[in-house]
């Protein structure tokens, strides 16, 4: 994955991945705050127990209703927060993450969650792959690639949106993570193949006042407090 292994940090290093007791964490050199994925306790546990269940905007956006629980492809998994929420509501989740740091942190979080009785059943519905979402979506749209034999009701897209002016609003640790990962400047390329794959809808999570993905007007929108969920209907290959 292109990540160097050091016995001691390189003198020019700004961030390191390191083991802290039982978890893998991302640390900014010179800072105490660290980023790691925890689905068992903390904010994830509180949201699982008291977060509103199907009433959450992300659940409404992907269309959970009655007996209908969609199969979801999350092509920009990041640290897996929304994917875990959807899995906790019963969705079968396929996750793709292309950034080595995020992939390793998320893999470690899933590993530890598998060992806990409160979360094991949830993460059993989550399958994580390392790869570029654009490439995997494009291949799947042409009937090839690693996902060729899988069907998805919903494609979920939440690319990292570059907002330099809003960094201060994030926790110091998460701001460091966002700085290291950077924005997904090529995210617009995700939408077209996603619309050829999803059977029901495509959901794009954006900051509330961010521009539309690929300039495409959504078919419907679900608003959250600081984000919005733009919904697009599929486009059949024969209607292209």
CATH class designation: Alpha Beta
Count of helix runs: 8
- How many beta-strand elements? 10
Number of domains: 1
The CATH homologous superfamily? Vaccinia Virus protein VP39
State the order of secondary-structure elements, H for helix, E for strand.
EEEHHEHEHHEHEHHEEE
Please list the strands of the largest sheet in the order they lie side by side. 6-5-4-7-8-10-9
> Residue ranges: pLDDT <50 for 5 or more in a row?
none
Sheet/helix structural class: alpha/beta
Subcellular location: Cytoplasm
GO molecular function: methyltransferase activity
Function: Specifically methylates the guanosine in position 1516 of 16S rRNA.
Pfam family, one: SAM_MT
Structural summary, described in words:
Keywords: Cytoplasm, Methyltransferase, rRNA processing, S-adenosyl-L-methionine, Transferase. Pfam families: SAM_MT. S-adenosyl-L-methionine binds at residues 97-98, 158. The protein has one domain (38-169, 182-239): Rossmann fold (3-Layer(aba) Sandwich). The chain has helices spanning 42-50, 57-62, 81-88, 100-114, 120-123, 133-141, 172-181, 191-197, and strands at residues 15-20, 23-28, 34-35, 71-74, 92-97, 126-130, 154-157, 201-207, 220-223, 227-232. The model has no long low-confidence stretch (mean pLDDT 88). With 240 residues, the chain is an alpha/beta fold. The protein has a seven-stranded mixed β-sheet, with helices on both faces. A three-stranded antiparallel β-sheet has the order 1-2-3, with helices on one face.
């Amino acid at each position: 994955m292109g990540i160097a292994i050091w016995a001691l940090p390189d003198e020019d290093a700004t961030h390191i991945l390191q083991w802290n007791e039982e978890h893998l964490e991302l640390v900014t050199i010179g800072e105490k705050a660290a980023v790691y994925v925890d689905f068992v306790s903390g904010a994830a546990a509180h949201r699982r127990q008291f977060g509103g269940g199907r009433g959450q905007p992300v659940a409404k956006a992907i269309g959970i209703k009655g007996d209908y629980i969609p199969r979801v492809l999350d092509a920009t998994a990041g640290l897996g927060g929304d994917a875990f929420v959807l899995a906790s509501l019963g969705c079968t989740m396929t996750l793709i993450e292309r950034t080595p740091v995020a992939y390793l942190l998320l893999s470690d979080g899933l590993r530890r969650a598998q060992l806990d009785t409160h979360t094991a059943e949830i993460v059993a519905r989550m399958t994580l792959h390392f790869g570029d979402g654009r490439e995997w979506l494009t291949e799947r749209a042409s009937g090839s690639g690693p996902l060729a034999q899988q069907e998805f009701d919903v494609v979920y897209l939440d690319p990292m949106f570059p907002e330099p002016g809003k960094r201060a609003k994030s926790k110091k640790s998460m701001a460091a993570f966002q700085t290291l990962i950077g924005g997904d400047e090529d995210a617009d390329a995700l939408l077209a193949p996603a619309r050829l794959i999803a059977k029901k809808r495509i959901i794009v999570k954006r900051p509330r006042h961010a521009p539309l993905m690929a300039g495409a007007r959504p078919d419907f929108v679900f608003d959250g407090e600081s984000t919005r969920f733009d919904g697009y209907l599929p486009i059949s290959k024969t209607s292209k």
